[in-house]
């Protein structure tokens, strides 16, 4: 069980790819349904849709490092495609914390899975946290990328204390609901009868 082997790395890479497309799907859904708030709700909706992917990771590759690899796919994306320079940090940090909770702690199994998944889901907050906590640096970053003030004002229009708590609260709530839904799907279609979650 110690250390990721080649097959584990391959499996983690496959799940990372699936997770990336789930996040992409969530982004598309929000962009066409709630364009004003779409970026703030991506972590929550992604958490709602990704529960079964997470369960496949922790059951098929139950070793430290797998969860981090899956979350890191988004860190790489944020780093390469010109997001705010620090956007990739939460996408590394939160999956790593979730990985540690899931594989290195001895707390109650159900609590451990829900807590680790919630931490993992916060990995997608990287692009939006600077909107509240690093506003001036974020504006400078947008200006350096050629964005005008009309665009910048539209980005910051929904940013408030209320929207922060709504975004973070929905990420927690949808992580719980998403994992509950994911458990039903996983147990029905993917789990061995003797190893259901």
Automatic annotation (TrEMBL):
<dbReference type="InterPro" id="IPR011733">
    <property type="entry name" value="CHP02185_IM"/>
</dbReference>
<feature type="transmembrane region" description="Helical">
    <location>
        <begin position="12"/>
        <end position="34"/>
    </location>
</feature>
<feature type="transmembrane region" description="Helical">
    <location>
        <begin position="155"/>
        <end position="181"/>
    </location>
</feature>
<keyword id="KW-0472">Membrane</keyword>
<keyword id="KW-1133">Transmembrane helix</keyword>
<keyword id="KW-0812">Transmembrane</keyword>
<dbReference type="Pfam" id="PF09605">
    <property type="entry name" value="Trep_Strep"/>
</dbReference>
<feature type="transmembrane region" description="Helical">
    <location>
        <begin position="69"/>
        <end position="94"/>
    </location>
</feature>
<protein>
    <submittedName>
        <fullName>MptD family putative ECF transporter S component</fullName>
    </submittedName>
</protein>
<feature type="transmembrane region" description="Helical">
    <location>
        <begin position="40"/>
        <end position="57"/>
    </location>
</feature>
<feature type="transmembrane region" description="Helical">
    <location>
        <begin position="114"/>
        <end position="134"/>
    </location>
</feature>
């Amino acid at each position: 069980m110690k250390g990721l082997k080649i097959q584990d790395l391959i499996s983690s890479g496959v799940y990372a790819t699936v997770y990336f497309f789930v996040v992409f799907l969530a982004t598309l859904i929000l962009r066409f349904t709630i364009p004003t708030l779409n970026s703030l709700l991506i972590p929550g909706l992604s958490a709602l849709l990704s529960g079964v992917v997470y369960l496949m990771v922790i059951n098929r590759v139950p070793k430290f490092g797998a969860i981090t690899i899956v979350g890191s796919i988004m860190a790489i994306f944020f780093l390469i495609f010109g997001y705010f320079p620090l956007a990739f940090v939460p996408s590394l940090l939160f999956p790593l914390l979730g990985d540690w909770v899931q594989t290195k702690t001895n707390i109650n199994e159900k609590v451990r899975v829900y807590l680790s998944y919630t931490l993992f889901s916060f990995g997608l907050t990287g692009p939006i946290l600077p909107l509240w906590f690093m506003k001036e640096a974020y504006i400078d970053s947008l200006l350096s990328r050629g964005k005008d003030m009309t665009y910048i004002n539209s980005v910051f229009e929904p940013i408030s204390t209320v929207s922060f708590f709504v975004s973070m609260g929905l990420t927690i709530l949808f992580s719980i609901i998403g994992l509950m839904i994911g458990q039903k799907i996983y147990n029905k279609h993917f789990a061995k009868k003797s190893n259901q979650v």
